[in-house]
Amino acid sequence: MPADRLYNTRGGWWSRTAIFGCYPTALAAIATLPLSQRRRMALVALPLCASVALPGMVDEERLDARPRNAPALAGVALALLAADPQATAPPPSRTELLAGGALLILATPWLLAEVGVQTRGMAAPSPGEPGVDRVHVGHHEGLDGALLALDGMALGRAPRGRLHAAYLALMTSYGVAVAVQDAWNEQLVKRGLVPGRLPPVHRPAANRGWAAIAAGTLATYLIFTRMNPARSAPMR
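User: That's the sequence. What structure does it adopt?
Assistant: Structure tokens below.
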């Protein structure tokens, strides 16, 4: 796909892929570290992956790889090397399958855009931005959110302790919020069906979006740790 068709990047596929390796991949990689075989390597990977949260590490206005992204990418690589290939989780419940299916349905336009496919509706301009596709080709932040939420639900079936469960709950709630915000903007605001966008949630802020994330995190944490004791059991 020509780089000029991608959103806020001019470096081509390799550059945008490197940014994807930072966000959301580094956040998801942190969630795997408690399951790692090589503890020392996991401890080194943790701050490297966490560096993706520092200001300026990922700039939505310029989604091109830069030297500052190297620590997060190194952390992801170490997390992969430290991973336990024998780790398994209990099978998902019906509720989890329904929730995951709903996320995949929500993500369908983003999955199409990821491989360069646009339906007529995706390519149609929005009333407020007549020169912009409603759903541009390339990678979408909504897909980042859906992936984080799916990862959180998968790992949340067997968290390694309460701190791990809390991180998984936050990652799941945050991912759902990012996906819903992007879908609301593209499917409702850009169609002219609702007047306003939802509050931004990409970074922590004192707004209604993050209040919803906090409430969702608490609810998800209770699900992961208290409502089903089997979910707190170690993976085998």
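Residues 90-236 form one domain.
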